[in-house]
Design brief:
single chain, alpha/beta, Beta-Lactamase, Alpha-Beta Plaits, 3 domains, 5-stranded antiparallel β-sheet, elongated
């Protein structure tokens, strides 16, 4: 399946930290196990320094016994006087802590005694000498340098100094001096003590490093696994939120998958069964994806896919989505031996490089998903931005930049005395004699950086009108993204002296971060702004959020109001909403007021204000204030 952390970079800290830890731990472990070797080399260095005078005497002795012109070994064997002279020279070395002095030589690749002046356990001429480490002697034949061998298996023997006897640039024999154990103890006991202390410290540090490594790995896997949905290969929505800025969305085809009619399944079998079916569906969808693709549960019944464009054509991407749709359609799912048929609708965006943001890209996939559902569900629909539409977007940008943006105004009227309470500013673009309406402007810019620029111009336009006309009171529509924009909040705070005449209508949508919005609303109310939730009832409304958000007005969506007098369901919903608002001291504005019957019902329910063509259609500012 997909690489579940393809976007995340925070986890890389743990990977790099773990890699660094492994490198340190490997070097540490290597050093710890090399410590005996290091200790031995250090001991040899200390011993070399301590026997420097003896070493010089040995060199002088070797020079003395090599004075004869004949072969050293031959002269020893054939000439007793030479042998006696050599014995006398060697005997002078046997003093202090030196227990044995003898010479061995190679015979048929084995070491045998040539001369031994030791006090006890003398070796006889020609007797085999059992070397504990023969490689040491072979090495000396090559290097022609002395060696110090620390005895480990002999009880009373400390170390041995071995000197090569070189004749005509060739090692012909070896002179060995054995030192007693007490010599070793005196000279390097403190070294051994220090080494043992160091070894214990290293062992302790090693345990700490091991525990730290285990902690690091547990933290890394815990952080990674917190995003995983149990029993699936899908990720939670929180993964998308935490890595929003890190996602190179233009490198991916984007799809939104929605389960068709899940509410029916929940109503029949219960939500617990519905949740199990969702898990089963996610398992099956994940089998259709590749390692480099990313699968996220975007909502309860909605899934977001990022399919890597590299090595995948648009045709292959669309084929993949169609295969997912067919696979779900043919899937055999059972609830208590009863087969449940499920289908999905899929919206895709292949031209993600044209999106202004990840939010914009997901929005466009959502538009395509809506089209798939609108056209009958159980189908794949693609969002395509044609060349003509791209040119139109650029033209709109130019017109907005050239200050062709204006506002028309529709009055909000008291249902009791028909007085105008304030106006709602509605965006328009005047292009010569032609007026371009919001539904032709905003969808192309929503969730892009340019959307906030439009909002800023609307704010500035109306601030100017308010300052020119002390009787003018207006509400402006701002999205949740607008209110999280520091520049927009800054302008509102700067103009707080007119906050009682500049109302804020927050546009409802499914992307609102209510926790952040609550903080912003409190700040605006502190500076005197009146807050209204616009289009309540469009599908994403939530009574809990209304209680948490400190609002003054609630504007009921016109799609419910316009049928209130003929639709019993709409009638009941509106009545419940209005009672909720009255109980919580929230004033109500009803949109799409088109006739007297609607007004009579709204007044009966206790609605305060209305807005609609029955009172006035949106008109230019001059229509209401001709002399301004």
């Amino acid at each position: 399946m997909h690489n579940r952390f393809i976007f995340s970079t925070f986890h890389k800290f743990y990977y790099y930290a773990l890699l660094t830890y492994i490198i340190i731990f490997v070097f540490f472990t290597y050093g710890y196990f090399k410590l005996p070797e290091i200790q031995e080399k250090f001991q040899k260095t200390v011993l070399s320094l301590s026997i420097e005078n003896t070493d010089k005497m040995v060199d002088e002795t070797i020079s003395l016994i090599l004075q004869d012109e004949t072969s050293f070994i031959s002269s020893h064997i054939k000439n007793n006087k030479v042998k006696e002279k050599q014995e006398l020279a060697l005997s002078r070395l046997k003093r202090g802590n030196i227990s044995s002095v003898f010479i061995v030589f190679l015979q048929k690749e084995k070491l045998v005694y040539l001369l031994d002046v030791s006090t006890r356990d003398r070796g006889s001429f020609g007797e085999l000498f059992q070397a504990e480490d023969m490689s040491l002697f072979n090495n000396m034949i090559e290097t022609k340098k002395r060696e110090i061998f620390i005895q480990k298996g002999l009880k009373n023997l400390g170390f041995t100094l071995i000197k090569p006897i070189i004749e005509k640039d060739k090692v012909v024999a070896f002179l060995l001096l054995d030192y007693q154990q007490k010599s070793l103890d005196i000279m390097i006991s403190k070294v051994i003590d220090y080494m043992n202390i160091l070894k214990n410290i290293l062992a302790f540090v090693g345990v700490i490093l091991l525990l730290f490594g285990l902690y690091l790995m547990s933290m890394m896997f815990a952080r990674e696994n917190r995003y995983m949905i149990a029993n699936t290969h899908a990720l939670k929505r929180s993964y998308l939120m935490d890595n929003y800025e890190k996602i190179n969305f233009s490198d991916y085809y984007i799809s939104l998958i929605n389960i068709d009619f899940l509410k029916r399944i929940n109503d029949i079998y219960g939500e617990r069964v519905g949740d199990k079916l969702i898990i089963e569906l996610m398992k099956n969808i994940s089998t259709q994806l590749r390692k480099q693709d990313v699968f996220i549960q975007y909502g309860g019944e909605e899934f977001l896919l990022f399919v890597l464009k590299k090595e995948t054509s648009v045709h292959e991407f669309r084929l993949m989505m169609e295969e997912i749709r067919i696979m779900v359609d043919m899937l055999e799912l059972y609830v208590k031996d009863e087969k449940v048929h499920m289908t999905v609708s899929i919206g895709t965006l292949s031209q993600s490089q044209n999106a202004k943001s990840l939010h914009d890209a997901i929005y466009k996939a959502d538009v395509a998903l809506y089209r798939a559902k609108h056209n009958g569900r159980n189908r794949v629909s693609s969002y395509e931005l044609s060349s003509d539409k791209r040119l139109y977007r650029y033209k709109l940008k130019e017109m907005i930049s050239d200050d062709k943006l204006v506002c028309y105004y529709q009055p909000i009227v008291s249902l009791v005395n028909r007085k105008i309470i304030h106006y709602e500013a509605l965006l328009r673009i005047e292009d010569g004699g032609k007026v371009i309406y919001p539904d032709k402007i905003l969808p192309d810019f929503e969730d892009s950086y340019f959307y906030s620029r439009i909002s800023m111009k609307v704010i500035e336009f109306n601030i100017k009108k308010i300052r020119e006309n002390p009787k003018f009171k207006v509400s402006i529509n701002l999205s949740s993204d607008d209110l999280l924009n520091d520049s927009i909040i800054g302008v509102l705070i700067k103009n707080r002296d007119i906050s009682n005449r500049l109302l804020i209508e927050i546009l409802e949508n499914k992307f609102i971060d209510y926790s952040k919005m609550e903080v912003v609303i409190k700040k605006l109310r502190f500076f005197g702004y009146i807050i209204c939730i616009d289009d309540f009832g469009t599908g994403y409304s939530n009574f809990d959020h209304l209680l948490n958000l400190s609002i003054d007005y609630l504007k009921l969506d016109g799609s419910m109001i316009k049928n209130i007098h003929i639709d019993n369901r709409a009638h009941g919903i509106i009545k419940t909403l209005i009672k909720f608002c009255i109980d919580n001291d929230i004033k109500v504005i009803a949109e799409y007021v088109e006739n007297q019957k609607i007004i009579d019902l709204l007044k009966e329910f206790g609605v305060d204000y209305g807005q609609g063509y029955y009172f006035s259609k949106p008109l230019p500012y001059d229509a209401f204030y001709p002399n301004q």
